[in-house]
């Protein structure tokens, strides 16, 4: 078929032969409104020579690459409607298809497997939105890969003949991954390796990688942590420049630095933490006043004194943004010389702190809060269990400073009980979910899984930290300092609708209509407290919540029922807390201009004061960028920790293959049931393919599966058999017991 189109005659000569410009080619499609083949475009633009047609083919491919045209072998080329183009991150499924997320308020776009031969999970791609077709899916089309997000791949090195290739740990890679031989390859076959991508796949090339690190063999001690860290690109090693900067600060507080501080060393501050804690961010002290009011002092390690903006320690801490915790192991945000040493509020040594001094009435209402740069000398390193024993059995304290410390702890507990009353009035949600503690053997595998027993000492310290965080947020608001808030929005409408239908099936109601309050959640939590399926319902309510994040704008905290909230209490392990400390110190120094500043200048001139810059180099734009980064790093840390825990659970459950357990349905999907075992709370999947009896129907809204013989909904008790443990995918498969 030949088209008689009068095309513009604008030509350019980027190629060896004169061919139509891009504008000229695009104008052809404005006239025909459909597909054109290479031959039709050649004829319409008056190209007849073979060399010209080859040059045109290159230009058309370039226009396809740049998102101006699309191409199919059956139909040819078509102009892309630029208004229908969107860019987003693609999430690939193990079966090869993918979904592109491009707008929080829009449904993800489905792309079929045949379009994704050259795409890696997480890539930023450009998609041409199509129209809805049968079966609810649309004919969206991948235009191009905008940005590659995968730079390294973790996998098992294999060899076939003389060639090396990588079997990736992630199941989303559909490409063959070839390995360039180097000094690692010959000795690393059968080992897990970390490889850098040297060539991305396209129409002409396969994926090529080069090994940069050998991680070990599957099953090695600690291999789960190594894999997770490399999978997410988290660096646990320290650059020499960073370590040198940390060591240069010394191990003891400089006498010169003590001179500009409020001296709290005579007050019996103590730290209260878990048995295995090594870094101590916070110390507390409190007492009743003669007028019936209470004083509470929360002293937090003053990391901001030692880690200055944009120095090597700061840049590394900013990159990491958080410490990452695993069973029996931690990747700290700061080198141990600081996190476990100079910044840690260890007992019987002087330490620099920021102190939040709060005043409460006898009902637990905060009346006032002040901040100061302080100096403390922790009188004791206590554990939650020690403190709880003191609360339960006063006058039996065995610590060397018995009288002073015991009286102090009992005062703190009395204050906590007042604050607890305010927590209930405020309506803070208490999901009371059960945490698990893993005991590891000498090979860093799970030896036992035990519930974490929370007592009044845990809850007391948690409440004190919440008070200090609220006082911090109000300080930031009052002084209009650009900084980070910790915000938590209410539940989304979509999640609420599904939640209400699931609850209705169980005869339960969440009050509050379209805008339930934290009080409404607490009423329902109280109703299900003693139900057999209470744990599952609590988890269901927790999943209905939005995710907390960092924001430059205060938006309140729904779950804690606070109008303003920020993170202040953990600068050793969270970068947002360090930023907040810098904001507070900058304001304190600004307020102290007068006499204190003159004295400070005199001390500096005499060489009697060092460190402690008042510099706060953050404007609104910088804080916005840091809020996004810190939120991402916080979510990633949680994800990495879960991955390691799931891998360890898989190893733990291998000896139980073939054994029967009782569990409850904890999740319902179109591909099966998730079941949580009652014995150890480990979760596994019963695939729909293992359902033996006839047809079944999946109800996604009410979260249930109905078969000919049974109905399975959240909380349904089932008997299962451990069928298979897939360590590579960190997945445990169950089947129904006979």
TrEMBL record:
Residues 658-737 form the S1 motif domain. It is an enzyme of class 3 (hydrolase). GO terms for molecular function: exoribonuclease II activity; RNA binding. It comes from the Bacteria. InterPro entries: CSD, CSD2, NA-bd_OB-fold, RNase_B_OB_dom, RNase_II/R, RNase_II/R_CS, RNase_II/RNase_R, RNase_R. Its EC number is 3.1.13.1. It is found in: Cytoplasm. It holds the Pfam family RNB. Gene3D superfamilies: Nucleic acid-binding proteins (2.40.50.140). Keywords: Cytoplasm, Exonuclease, Hydrolase, Nuclease, RNA-binding. Its main location: cytoplasm. PROSITE patterns: RIBONUCLEASE_II, S1. GO terms for biological process: mRNA catabolic process. It catalyses: Exonucleolytic cleavage in the 3'- to 5'-direction to yield nucleoside 5'-phosphates. Belongs to the RNR ribonuclease family. RNase R subfamily. 3'-5' exoribonuclease that releases 5'-nucleoside monophosphates and is involved in maturation of structured RNAs. NCBIfam families: 3_prime_RNase, RNase_R. This is Ribonuclease R. The lineage of its organism: Bacteria, Pseudomonadati, Pseudomonadota, Gammaproteobacteria, Vibrionales.
């Amino acid at each position: 078929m030949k088209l008689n189109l009068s095309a513009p005659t604008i030509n350019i000569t980027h190629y060896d032969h004169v061919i139509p410009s891009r504008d000229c080619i695009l104008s052809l499609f404005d006239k025909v409104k459909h597909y054109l083949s290479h031959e039709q475009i050649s004829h319409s633009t008056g190209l007849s020579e073979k060399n010209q047609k080859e040059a045109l083919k290159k230009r058309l491919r370039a226009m396809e690459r740049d998102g101006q045209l699309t191409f199919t072998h059956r139909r040819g080329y078509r102009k892309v409607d630029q208004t229908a183009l969107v860019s987003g991150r693609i999430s690939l499924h193990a079966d090869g298809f993918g979904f592109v997320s491009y707008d929080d308020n829009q449904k993800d776009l489905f792309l079929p497997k045949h379009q994704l031969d050259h795409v890696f999970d997480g890539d930023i791609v450009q998609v041409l939105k199509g129209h809805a077709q049968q079966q609810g899916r649309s004919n969206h089309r991948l235009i191009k890969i905008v940005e590659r997000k995968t730079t390294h791949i973790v996998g098992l090195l294999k060899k076939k003949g003389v060639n090396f290739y990588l079997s990736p740990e992630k199941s989303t890679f559909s490409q063959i991954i070839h390995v360039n031989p180097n000094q690692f390859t010959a000795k690393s076959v059968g080992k897990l390796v970390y490889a850098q991508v040297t060539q991305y796949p396209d129409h002409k090339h396969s994926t090529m990688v080069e090994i940069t690190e050998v991680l070990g063999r599957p099953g090695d001690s600690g291999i789960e942590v190594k894999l997770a860290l490399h999978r997410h690109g988290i660096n646990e090693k320290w650059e020499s420049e960073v370590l040198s900067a940390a060591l240069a600060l010394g191990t003891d507080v400089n006498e010169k630095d003590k001179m500009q501080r409020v001296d709290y060393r005579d007050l019996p501050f103590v730290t209260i933490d878990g048995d295995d804690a090594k870094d101590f961010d916070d110390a507390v002290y409190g007492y009743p006043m003669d007028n019936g009011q209470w004083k509470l002092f929360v002293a937090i390690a003053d990391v901001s004194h030692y880690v200055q903006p944009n120095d090597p320690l700061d840049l590394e801490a900013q990159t990491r943004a958080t410490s990452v915790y695993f069973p029996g192991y931690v990747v700290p945000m700061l080198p141990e010389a600081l996190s476990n040493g100079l910044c840690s509020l260890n007992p019987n040594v002087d330490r620099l702190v920021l102190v939040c001094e709060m005043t409460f009435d006898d009902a637990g209402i905060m009346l006032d809060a002040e901040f100061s740069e302080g100096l403390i000398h922790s009188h004791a390193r206590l554990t939650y269990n020690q403190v709880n024993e003191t609360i339960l059995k006063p006058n039996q304290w065995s610590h060397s400073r018995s009288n002073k410390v015991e009286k102090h702890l009992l005062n703190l507990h009395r204050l906590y009980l007042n604050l607890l009353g305010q927590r209930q009035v405020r309506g803070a949600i208490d999901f009371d979910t059960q945490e698990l503690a893993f005991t590891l053997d000498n090979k860093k595998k799970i030896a036992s899984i035990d519930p974490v027993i929370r007592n009044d000492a845990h809850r007391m310290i948690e409440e004190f930290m919440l008070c200090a965080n609220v006082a911090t947020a109000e300080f930031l608001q009052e002084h209009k300092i650009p900084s980070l808030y910790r915000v938590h929005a209410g539940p989304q409408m979509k999640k609420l609708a599904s939640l209400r239908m699931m609850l209705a099936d169980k005869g339960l109601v969440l009050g509050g209509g379209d805008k339930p309050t934290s009080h409404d959640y607490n009423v329902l939590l109280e109703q299900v407290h003693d139900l057999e399926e209470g744990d599952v319902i609590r988890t269901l309510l927790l999943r209905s919540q939005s995710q907390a994040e960092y924001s430059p704008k205060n938006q309140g905290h729904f779950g804690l029922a606070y109008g303003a909230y920020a993170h202040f209490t953990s600068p050793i392990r969270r970068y947002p807390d360090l930023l907040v400390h810098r904001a507070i110190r900058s304001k304190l120094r600004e307020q102290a201009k007068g006499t204190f500043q003159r004295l400070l200048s005199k001390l500096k001139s005499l060489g009697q004061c060092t460190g402690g810059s008042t510099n706060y180099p953050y404007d609104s734009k910088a804080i916005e960028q840091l809020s996004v980064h810190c939120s991402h790093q916080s979510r990633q840390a949680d994800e990495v920790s879960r991955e390691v825990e799931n891998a360890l659970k898989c190893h733990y459950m291998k000896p139980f293959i073939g054994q029967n357990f009782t569990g409850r349905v904890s999740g319902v999907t179109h591909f099966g049931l998730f079941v949580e075992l009652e014995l150890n709370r480990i979760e596994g999947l019963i695939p729909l393919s293992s359902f033996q009896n006839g047809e079944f129907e999946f109800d996604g809204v009410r979260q249930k599966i109905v078969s000919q013989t049974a109905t399975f909904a959240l909380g349904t008790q089932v008997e299962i058999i451990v069928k298979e443990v897939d360590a590579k995918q960190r997945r445990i498969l169950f089947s129904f017991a006979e």
